[in-house]
Design a protein that fits this description.
Blueprint (H helix, E strand, L loop, with lengths): L14 E4 L10 E4 L8 E2 L14 E7 L8 H11 E12 L4 H5 L29 E11 L1 H5 L2 H7 L1 H11 L5 E11 L1
Parallel strand pairs: 1-2, 1-4, 2-3, 4-5
Antiparallel strand pairs: 5-7, 6-7
Length: 187
Amino acid sequence: MPEARGLAPGVPTRTLDVGCGINKFPGAIGIDRNPRSRADALCDLDRFPYPFRDNSFGALRAIHVIEHVSDVIRAMEEFHRLVAPGGRVVIVTPHYTDFSSFCDPTHRWHLNSFSFRYFGTDHGGFGYYTAARFREVFVRVRLLALWRWLGFELLVNSFPRFRRFWEYYLCYIVRGKVMEFEFEAIK
């Protein structure tokens, strides 16, 4: 799993693990709604604000969480509030063409590798719905093993134009598995 890297000087070093479950990131403060998790604080991830002050964390992790929340935009706004300027947000979620995206009945959202551009400068004209802004630091799409072995994953991840072509025309044939994102909070 990716971890936030390269934090600027002065950014808090604390990490918040949102929806930590039983695999809380070492050294992080974990929140989850399930009392059987290893969370340090129990809270409903669909009720805002979370019980922390603005700019409290240098990094925030949401590993296989964003597809479960009731409102992706509101969750991203909350992540933005919690992370200090220059802090990092790491998100991992299934690609919408993967079987796992649809086999879990608790998944509410089925996302692709461009779903979060909404929060950046390339928002396609729809950035007025939110003031939360992130800079995309890292995007990686993992493909099913056959396509990885054939080198297709390398092409998808090395060339953004090829990734766009894959998303538009090929992703139902060459299926995605999981996506990993890292964003920098712009404040």
